[in-house]
Specification:
This protein folds into 2 domains: 30 residues; 159 residues, no CATH class. The chain is 25% helix and 42% strand. It contains 4 helices and 9 strands. A 6-stranded antiparallel sheet has the order 6-5-4-3-8-9.
Length: 194
């Protein structure tokens, strides 16, 4: 009877050790990668509110490896303008999305970035240059001045997400379970001053 209790205890500690080994990369890579919205500025020009923002992309080792092997990565920059309300949920006035596709072409030894929203295509010799293009939004129209009512509070939110559903099918389960694929940002909000 004691031998089986000893075996159970040994099995328990072995499983616990394996679990810790499996989780260690999750803790050791925390905050080393992801996307962060650095700053934003909202200006009024020709009766429209325009957004300019900067993002910082820090790809994980797994994402860079997939990119180097020709896997395209799709990024969505979601922009939402909403009105704060005291007693109800905030009212969404406008929402838009900019979608980028970044892919490495080994034969050409270059990174190609395509703005899926307007079809523009750019080629870069380095990954950092390609990410710099995706890192800047300039004069993006978020709201007409006529929609903003005096005395109301408005805000603009930005969230950048890696579209894991656009990854090749064999890679998707890994992307949903491996923390190195958690590259999306949180919502970042800025007040819209009238």
């Amino acid at each position: 009877m004691r031998a089986s209790a000893s075996n159970k205890s040994s099995l328990y500690y072995s499983l616990l050790y394996c679990l810790l080994i499996w989780l260690t990369p999750a803790f050791s890579y925390a905050d080393a990668f992801g996307v962060e919205v650095k700053n934003a500025e909202i200006t009024l020009q020709d009766n429209s509110y325009l957004l300019s923002a900067d993002m910082d992309y820090q790809l994980s080792a797994r994402a860079k490896e997939a990119l180097q092997n020709g896997v395209p990565l799709f990024w969505n920059i979601n922009i939402k303008t909403f009105q704060h309300r005291d007693y109800f949920w905030d009212k969404t006035l406008a929402s838009a999305s900019i979608r980028y596709r970044i892919q490495y072409h080994a034969l050409l030894n270059m990174y190609r970035v395509r703005n899926e929203s307007n079809g523009e295509l750019y080629n870069f010799s380095t990954l950092s240059a390609a990410l710099d293009l995706m890192s800047a939004i300039r004069d993006f129209r978020v709201l007409d001045k006529t929609v903003a009512e005096p005395g109301e509070r408005y805000a603009v939110g930005i969230k950048v997400t890696l579209d894991r559903d656009a990854l090749p099918l064999p890679l998707r389960p890994i992307a949903y379970t491996n923390p190195q694929w958690y590259l999306s940002s949180d919502w970042t909000l800025w007040p819209l001053t009238k």
